[in-house]
Amino acid sequence: MTAASQPLPLSLNVSTPLIGTVRVPGDKSISHRALMLGALAVGESVIEGLLEGEDVLATAAAMRAMGASAERTGDGLWRVNGVGVGGLLQPQTALDMGNSGTSTRLLMGLVASHAITATFTGDASLSKRPMGRVIDPLSLMGARFEASPGGRLPLTMAGLCPAVPLRYVLPVASAQVKSAVLLASLNAPGVTMVIEKTPTRDHSERMLTGFGAQVTVEDAPEGRIISIRGEAELKPQAIIVPGDPSSAAFPMVAALIVPGSDVLIENVGVNPTRAGLIQALRMMGASIELLNEREVGGEPVADLRVRASALSGIEVPPEIAPSMIDEYPILFVAAALAGGTTVARGLGELRVKESDRITVMAEGLRACGVRVEELEDGLVVHGTGGERRAGGATVASHLDHRIAMSFAVLGLAAHRPVIVDDARPIATSFPSFVPLMESLGAESR
Ligand code: S3P
């Protein structure tokens, strides 16, 4: 982390409704992909609205280390000059991925089909996360790996140029694994196919098509089949990155649980593969209006008007999990203020995110006076029906930005402060989180 070297405690509180109009930073998933595909096109791509969070900056640094240029210019745009598919250079030092699983897994896909060797390192959180899920398919495509025990970072890999095309049925619902294979296939002959039983975020497919790759997507009985023709030539693009729905989730839930609030969040990506939280919150009775729906750069976008609402507990349909996989921590906060019980299952993947988000949320919510039951693959949260929670606890963020922001938001609806022990991880995805919440009326300490 580049920010302060000492833990940075944070607590938010509010004594008025949250009112105002805000914009959240650019979508993290789309920002990573824009830098990577720009680096593989021949010529200059221009990116507007790139998320300048630590995770995305780690991707930009890696692309530079492999021969592309990726710079922010005075006008706030990012300009990426690519080297062409097959043209990545051997990095001279280890690629430091910081906290970013997306950077790591997608870049492993890129390296897999280049004749280069690269070492990936990361922080304590990233070094605990499983990489076997990308090592397996990329090995089948010809890459070789030396990983730390359990298939973890630090790891060194050598790519094969050209790689071997693959037909791969995803064993886990993971856009990162899907994208790693699709990116590797760009420098493999013939057609590579990825089959996903449950659709996951489709930004890679959309953006690869935008850059001129031949991609087809077919819904078949065995799942969604994504086919891509390799040895692609990517053409540089002008990309506009929409606001990140996973960041919008925090002011959205804050507005729902602070009485009297009325917040407009402009320019938010509402791609159906990401919009599960809106669906779940509406099932709970949330007032969320999608205004001015439009398409920007191949992605659906809308302005979201969110008003404080009386929420009710629900059984969250497990099939929408992939479309809100990063939003469960903040959904559990909404559930803690809802009337009745919320049950969420089918969430084994939450245990291998930046932290074990099931255990970490269960522990933090309990410390704040919320009754929860931890399941192997989910969480049961008993809500208050709108009554403020007790609070009065210090909660550990475990190097996890979404845990930090979730408990900061819970503090807005608690009697006594909820202190997040270390808010530094927020800079990985949403550096403007605290000032944005302040602009709506929250106070930070
Ligand atoms: C991402 C995919 C998801 C998500 C992550 C970003 C992506 O991870 O949790 O924050 O950009 O492809 P998984 O593929 O592990 O589900």
UniProtKB/TrEMBL annotation:
Its EC number is 2.5.1.19. 3-phosphoshikimate binds at K28, S29, R33, S174, Q176, D326, K353. Its main location: cytoplasm. Phosphoenolpyruvate binds at K28, G101, R129, Q176, R357, R402. One of its GO terms (molecular function) is 3-phosphoshikimate 1-carboxyvinyltransferase activity. It comes from the Bacteria. The active site is at D326 (proton acceptor). InterPro entries: Enolpyruvate_Tfrase_dom, Enolpyruvate_Tfrase_sf, EPSP_synthase, EPSP_synthase_CS, RNA3'P_cycl/enolpyr_Trfase_a/b. Residues 15-435 form the Enolpyruvate transferase domain. It catalyses: 3-phosphoshikimate + phosphoenolpyruvate = 5-O-(1-carboxyvinyl)-3-phosphoshikimate + phosphate. Keywords: Amino-acid biosynthesis, Aromatic amino acid biosynthesis, Cytoplasm, Transferase. Pathway: Metabolic intermediate biosynthesis; chorismate biosynthesis; chorismate from D-erythrose 4-phosphate and phosphoenolpyruvate: step 6/7. One of its GO terms (biological process) is amino acid biosynthetic process. The keyword Transferase applies. GO terms for cellular component: cytoplasm. PANTHER family: AROM/DEHYDROQUINATE SYNTHASE, PENTAFUNCTIONAL AROM POLYPEPTIDE. Catalyzes the transfer of the enolpyruvyl moiety of phosphoenolpyruvate (PEP) to the 5-hydroxyl of shikimate-3-phosphate (S3P) to produce enolpyruvyl shikimate-3-phosphate and inorganic phosphate. Monomer. Belongs to the EPSP synthase family. This is 3-phosphoshikimate 1-carboxyvinyltransferase. It comes from Tardibacter chloracetimidivorans. The gene is aroA.
